[in-house]
Write a structure and sequence with these properties.
The complex is a heterodimer. Chain A is α/β, with parallel strands linked by helices. Chain A has helices at 19-27, 34-46, 50-70, 89-96, 109-119, 135-139, 142-147, 171-181, 200-211, 223-228, 258-261, and strands at 75-79, 101-106, 125-129, 155-159, 187-193, 233-235, 241-242, 264-271. In chain A, strands 1, 2, 3, 4, 5, 6, 7 and 8 form an eight-stranded mixed beta sheet that branches. In chain A, α4 links the parallel β1 (75-79) and β2 (101-106). The longest helix of chain A has 21 residues, at 50-70. Chain B is an alpha/beta fold. The chains are: A alpha/beta, B alpha/beta. Chain A binds chain B through residues 6-16, 27-34, 51-52, 55, 58-59, 62, 85-87, 91-92, 95, 109-114, 116-117, 249-252, 254-256, and chain B through 1, 31, 34-40, 42-43, 46, 82-85, 134-135, 138-139, 141-142, 144-146, 148-150, 152-153, 157, 163, 166-167, 170-173, 274, 278. Chain A: One of its GO terms (molecular function) is methyltransferase activity. Chain A: Pfam families: Methyltransf_19. Chain A: InterPro entries: SAM-dependent_MTases_sf, SAM_dep_MeTrfase_SAV2177_type.
Chain lengths: 272, 701
C-alpha cells in the first residue's frame, strides 16, 4: 500500500488490476475482471511460459504444506494468499488433518471478501484483511488470535510475495518481525522471482505490471538476496532452488520447458 | 475440489493384459494432463481418478447400443477437478483419441472407431458446457465478492460519507445510497455514466426504473427491507436521460447504523457489460463450429425457433439442408486438410451468397450445412437460390494447387407452418435431402467403399477434374454411329475426353460436376453440329449421353432448351440418351417426357433386352435403345430373340462397343439397326473427325 494515508482499498476499483486476480487469471481461473485479464494476457505474451510458472508455484505450495504436515505442523499463516482457488493451503492441510488451522492474509478487499464467502463454513480457517508490511496488525488480528497458538510451531507461507516489497521497505526486517513472533521449530516457505535466472523478457513483464495502475511494483532479487531473507532459518534440503527442483514428486511438479523451473526460487527454512 | 471416485458403472476389463493396457493409458493421460492443469489431487489420486474415468469410457464403448453419455460426463468431471482449461482438454482428446483405439479390446472392430470419434466429440461437448458454467459461476462469485467488499468498507466507515464516496467513486459499478423512504441520498459517478445523467439527491429511486421493471424493483426492495436475505439481486432496466433504457443488474443490500438499525439501502447497478461480453464469448464458443466459425446445429435449431415465430406470415421462412456432393472424394483422395479448407471455402461462399438476405448459415456435421432464410418480397425463389449456390460453388477454388469445385444437394422446406417444432422441421429437411441424394447419387456408396488403388486414382481424378476442365484439359470428341446394314453414317455421338481417364463422364457424375459440364458438352456438340450444317459439311443427327445425375436433374429441361435456343439447333436433330436404370425416378421420367415433347429424340442406354426394359418402351416416347458393350460382346441368342419385339414397338436398336467385323456381322444378322464402337475408329476432335469423314465419303465415291 502506498505511503499516503489513503484508506481507499484499491482492489474495489475493478479498473485497477489486482495481482491476486492476475495470478488467478494466469493460473487458468475466472475469478478476475477485465483489467486483470488485460495485464495477465500482456504478461503472458511476453513470457509465454507463465502459466507453467503459476502452476509450478501452486504445486510447490502443495508439496511444501505436505512437507510441513510431515514435520508435525498443524497451523499455517499464509501471507498474500490471493484468490482462494483450487488446491489451497487449507484444502491440502485439512485433507490430511481436518483440525489443521489456517489463517490467510491479503490486502485486496475483493480477495478477502471472496475468501470470507468461501471459508464461511470452515471453522478452522479464516482471512485477515491487512497489509503484510504491518506485521503487528496481522499478528494481533482476531483471526490469528482465535486460530493460531503462537507458542507452538507455525508454518509461515510467503509465496510470490516478497518481490512486491521494495528494499526501502526493509524486507529483511519484515521477515524478521514475523520470525521473531514464532517459536523455534516453526517453518518459513517462500517463492520469489529469480532475478539471476531469467532473461530480459521478464524485465519487460515486470514493466507491464509496474506501468499498470496496480499499486504493486515488482522487485526481483537474485539468489544471495533471497537467501538473505531466510536469516534465522535453516534451509532444508535441497536449499533455495528453482521452484521445479524443490523435491519434485511427479510430472506435474516440473515444467516441460526447463527455464520455467528456474523462474522462481523456492525454499523452506526451519527456525533454529 | 472433487475427490477421486470409483464410478459404479465402470466395469473392469477381462484379463490381466487388458487391465495393464488400460492402466498404461490412464497413467499416460494423467502424466500428460498433470503438466497443464491445476488440480487438488496428488499424483496417485489423479492416476486413480483418471483410471476410473477410463474404465467408464471403455464400458461405454462396449455397451450395446452405444451411449456417449459417459463421455460427456467425463468431460464435465474434468472441469470439476480444478483449473483444467483448453490445454487440458486438448491433451485429453489427443491421448484418448489415439490411445483408446490402440487398446486390444477395441482393435478388432471398425465399429469402435466410429464410437471413439463420437465419444470424444461428446466429451468435448461435456467439457465445454461445464467449463462455461464454471466460468460463469466464478464470475458470479467475483461480483458477489465485489459487493461484499464495498458493503464491508462502507460498514467499517459508516459514519464518514466522504470516505465512502472515495471508495464508491472509484468503482465502475454504479453505486447508490438510498434512504428508507426510497429517496436518493447519494450516487457515484458511474451511475451517471450508466443512465446518462447524474441523478439529483432526493430523487425517488423508483423514477429511475423503467416501467417494465417497476414491479420487480418494488418486490426486490420489499425483500431487502424485510431483511430476508443478505442481499437481493435482479436484472432490470433503468431509464436513461435520452429516453432509452439501460440493462443492468441491481443488487440491493441493507445498511445499518451504529445501533444495528436499518438506515439506508446500498444499491449497486452492474451494467453487466463484462459478464454479458463473457457470456457472449462463451455462447459464441459453444454455439459455433470451430472450423468454419459458422453457428452450429444447436444454435441453428434455437434460432429456427425464434425465426419461425417472428417471420412475416406473408412470406414465411425457407430452410435449406445442404450436403456437398463430392466431399468424400476430396477427403479420400486429397486428405482431410484439403477437405477442411474446402469446408471453410464453402462456409465463406454460402455466407457471402446469403448476405443480402436475412438468413443464418450454419454448419451441421461433416459436409452438411443449414440455411434458414426469412423471406421478403425480394427473396428469390428456391430454384434460383439453389442455382446461384451451385453456380458459385461450381467455380473452382484452388486449394493446395488443386482446383476444386463442388455442387451441393439440398433438402428444402419452404414456408413451413410457424407452429412446427424446429427439430421436426430439421428432420423433414433432412429427409428431403436424403431423398434428393438417393435419386441423384446412385453410385455414391460404391465409390465410398472403394479402397483399391484404382478407386483412389479415380477419386483423385474426380477431384482435380474441375480445374482440368477450366484449364481446357477436358475436351469434346466425336465418333460415328453407323447403319449396320449399309455402313452409312447414321449420326454422330459427342463425348467428353480427358487424357487422364476414359471414364470422364462417370467420374464427373460421381463428383456432381456433370451438371455444368454435361450442359457444356451439349452446348459444344450442338454448336459444332450447327457450324457443320451451316457450312454444308455435315448434316447429321447428333447424340449426347446423359449420366444418371443429369437425367434426374430438375433443371435438365431448362438447360437443354437454353442450349437449343442459343445454338439454333433443331430439337429433332439432337438425341439425348438416358440410362435405363434411372427411369424409376419420377424426375427422370418427367424430364424424358418433356424433352420428347420439345422434339428432342430420346434413346435409352444400358438397355438390357429384358422384359422389364421392354416395358419402358411402351410407356415412354423412346426412339432408340443402346445395347451395352458386355451384352454386345456376349452375343447371346436370347438377346437377339428380343430384337423383333423392340422393333414391334417402333424403336430401333443400336449396339454399343462393336470392336470386330465378326461382332458387327453377328448383330447385323440378329437384326440390330445401328452400331457404335472402336471398329469404326476412335473418337476424334472436330477437325479430325470431319477430315476422316470427308476422306471416307471421297473413298466411297
Amino acid at each position: 500500500m502506498a505511503e499516503t494515508q489513503n484508506w481507499v482499498p484499491l482492489g474495489i476499483d475493478t479498473n485497477v488490476p489486482s495481482m491476486a486476480r492476475v495470478y488467478d487469471y494466469i493460473l487458468g481461473g475466472a475469478h478476475n475482471f477485465a483489467a486483470d485479464r488485460q495485464v495477465g494476457s500482456q504478461i503472458e505474451k511476453l513470457v509465454p511460459g507463465l502459466p507453467s510458472v503459476a502452476r509450478l508455484n501452486r504445486r510447490f505450495l502443495g508439496r511444501a504444506v505436505n512437507f510441513l504436515m510431515d514435520q508435525g505442523i498443524r497451523q499455517f499463516l499464509d501471507i498474500g494468499s490471493g484468490i482462494p482457488t483450487v488446491a489451497n493451503v487449507h484444502e491440502v492441510a485439512q485433507e490430511r488433518d481436518p483440525a489443521a488451522r489456517v489463517v490467510y492474509v491479503d490486502k485486496d478487499p475483493v480477495a478477502v471478501a471472496h475468501s470470507q464467502l468461501m471459508l464461511s463454513d470452515n471453522k478452522n480457517a479464516a482471512i485477515v484483511q491487512a497489509d503484510m508490511r504491518d506485521p503487528e496488525t496481522v499478528l494481533s488480528s482476531p483471526e490469528v488470535t482465535r486460530l493460531l497458538r503462537l507458542d507452538e510451531p507455525v508454518g509461515l507461507l510467503m509465496l510470490l510475495m516478497m518481490h512486491w516489497v521494495p528494499d526501502e521497505d526493509g524486507p529483511d526486517k519484515l521477515v524478521a518481525h514475523y520470525r521473531d513472533a514464532l517459536p523455534a521449530g516453526s517453518f518459513m516457505v517462500m517463492t520469489h522471482v529469480a532475478k539471476d535466472q531469467i532473461d530480459d523478457t521478464v524485465d519487460q513483464a515486470a514493466a507491464v505490471v509496474n506501468r499498470s495502475r496496480s499499486a504493486d511494483q515488482m522487485h526481483m532479487r537474485d539468489h544471495s538476496q533471497v537467501s538473505a531473507l531466510f536469516d534465522g532459518f535453516s534451509l532444508v534440503e535441497p536449499g533455495l532452488v528453482g521452484c521445479g527442483e524443490w523435491r519434485p514428486d511427479g510430472p506435474g511438479d516440473v515444467a516441460d520447458e526447463a527455464s520455467m523451473n528456474m523462474f522462481l526460487y523456492a525454499g523452506v527454512g526451519r527456525k533454529d | 475440489m472433487t475427490k477421486p471416485s470409483r464410478r459404479p458403472d465402470a466395469v473392469p476389463p477381462e484379463g490381466a493384459a487388458a487391465v495393464r493396457a488400460r492402466e498404461a493409458l490412464s497413467r499416460k493421460w494423467s502424466y500428460l494432463l498433470s503438466s497443464v492443469v491445476v488440480v487438488a489431487l496428488s499424483r496417485d489420486e489423479l492416476d486413480a481418478e483418471l483410471g476410473a474415468q477410463l474404465d467408464a469410457l471403455c464400458a461405454a464403448l462396449h455397451s450395446e447400443p452405444f451411449d456417449p453419455a459417459p463421455f460427456e460426463e467425463v468431460g464435465e468431471r474434468l472441469v470439476a477437478l480444478g483449473y483444467v482449461n483448453e490445454p487440458g482438454l486438448k491433451r485429453t482428446v489427443d491421448v484418448l483419441g489415439k490411445g483408446l483405439l490402440t487398446l486390444e479390446e477395441f482393435r478388432s472392430s471398425d465399429r469402435h472407431t466410429v464410437r471413439v470419434v463420437g465419444g470424444i466429440g461428446a466429451l468435448t461437448c461435456g467439457f465445454t458446457a461445464a467449463r462455461a458454467r464454471a466460468i460463469l459461476d466464478q464470475q458470479e462469485s467475483m461480483q458477489r465478492s465485489l459487493l461484499k467488499a464495498a458493503h464491508d468498507a462502507q460498514r467499517d466507515q459508516r459514519q464518514s460519507e466522504a470516505k465512502f464516496e472515495g471508495i464508491a467513486s472509484s468503482s465502475t459499478n454504479g453505486i447508490l445510497i438510498v434512504g428508507l423512504d426510497g429517496r436518493l441520498a447519494w450516487g457515484n459517478e458511474s451511475i451517471g455514466v450508466i443512465i446518462g445523467r447524474a441523478p439529483e439527491p432526493g430523487t425517488r429511486l423508483a423514477e429511475l426504473i423503467a416501467p417494465n421493471s417497476i414491479v420487480v424493483f418494488r418486490e426486490m426492495m420489499e425483500r431487502v427491507l424485510s431483511e430476508r436475505g443478505e442481499f437481493e439481486r435482479e436484472p432490470m432496466q433503468l431509464v436513461c436521460g435520452d429516453g432509452d433504457f439501460a440493462k443492468v443488474t441491481l443488487t440491493a443490500s441493507l445498511l445499518r447504523d451504529d445501533d444495528g438499525k436499518p438506515s439506508h439501502v446500498l444499491v449497486m447497478a452492474d451494467d453487466d457489460t463484462e459478464l454479458a461480453l463473457l457470456q457472449g464469448e462463451l455462447r459464441r464458443q459453444s454455439l459455433h463450429d470451430v472450423l468454419t466459425g459458422l453457428p452450429n446445429r444447436q444454435f441453428f435449431t434455437t434460432h429456427l425457433e425464434t425465426v419461425l415465430r417472428r417471420a412475416d406470415p406473408e412470406f414465411g421462412v425457407t430452410i435449406f439442408h445442404l450436403d456437398l456432393d463430392a466431399f468424400g472424394l476430396v477427403c479420400n483422395s486429397l486428405g482431410a486438410r484439403v477437405g477442411e479448407h474446402l469446408l471453410q471455402h464453402v462456409a465463406r461462399r454460402l455466407r457471402a451468397l446469403m448476405s443480402h438476405e436475412k438468413a443464418m448459415v450454419a454448419r451441421f456435421d461433416g459436409d452438411e450445412f443449414g440455411i434458414v432464410v426469412e423471406n421478403t418480397s425480394l427473396t428469390p425463389d428456391v430454384a434460383t437460390t439453389m442455382a446461384t449456390i451451385n453456380a458459385d460453388l461450381g467455380e473452382p477454388t484452388y486449394v493446395d494447387g488443386h482446383g476444386l469445385a463442388v455442387s451441393v444437394s439440398a433438402g428444402v422446406v419452404h414456408r413451413p407452418s410457424p407452429g412446427v417444432d424446429p427439430v421436426e422441421l430439421l428432420r423433414t429437411a433432412d429427409l428431403a435431402l436424403r431423398q434428393a441424394k438417393r435419386d441423384r447419387r446412385g453410385q455414391w456408396e460404391l465409390f465410398h467403399t472403394n479402397e483399391d488403388a484404382a478407386g483412389r486414382r479415380d477419386a483423385a481424378l474426380a477431384v482435380v477434374m474441375p480445374g482440368a476442365w477450366e484449364q481446357g484439359d477436358i475436351g469434346v470428341v466425336y465418333r460415328p454411329v453407323r447403319e449396320l446394314a449399309t455402313g452409312d453414317l447414321a449420326g454422330v455421338e459427342a463425348l467428353l475426353h480427358w487424357d487422364l481417364s476414359d471414364r470422364c463422364a462417370a467420374l464427373a457424375d460421381q463428383s456432381g460436376l456433370i451438371l455444368p459440364m454435361g450442359e457444356w458438352l451439349i452446348r459444344i456438340a450442338t454448336g459444332q453440329a450447327q457450324w457443320w450444317r451451316q457450312r454444308g459439311e455435315l448434316d447429321q443427327q447428333f447424340g449426347v449421353r446423359l449420366t444418371h445425375h443429369q437425367s434426374t436433374d430438375a433443371d435438365l429441361v431448362s438447360r437443354v432448351s437454353k442450349v437449343l435456343e442459343e445454338t439454333g439447333m433443331p430439337a429433332a436433330r439432337l438425341t439425348l440418351t438416358m440410362p435405363v436404370g434411372v427411369l424409376g425416378v419420377a424426375d427422370a421420367a418427367d424430364n424424358l417426357g418433356t424433352l420428347a415433347d420439345m422434339g428432342v429424340r430420346i434413346a435409352l442406354d444400358d438397355f438390357g433386352l429384358g422384359p422389364r426394359d421392354l416395358a419402358w418402351l411402351s410407356a415412354l416416347p423412346v426412339v432408340s435403345v443402346l445395347v451395352p458393350k458386355d451384352l454386345v460382346h456376349r452375343q447371346d441368342p436370347r438377346s437377339a430373340a428380343l430384337i423383333p419385339a423392340v422393333h414391334d414397338l417402333g424403336v430401333n436398336i443400336c449396339v454399343d462397343g462393336i470392336e470386330t467385323a465378326e461382332q458387327e456381322k453377328w448383330w447385323q444378322e440378329a437384326g440390330a439397326d445401328l452400331a457404335i464402337g472402336a471398329h469404326y475408329g476412335s473418337p476424334r476432335d472436330a477437325g479430325e473427325f470431319l477430315r476422316k469423314f470427308s476422306q471416307g465419303r471421297a473413298a466411297t465415291r
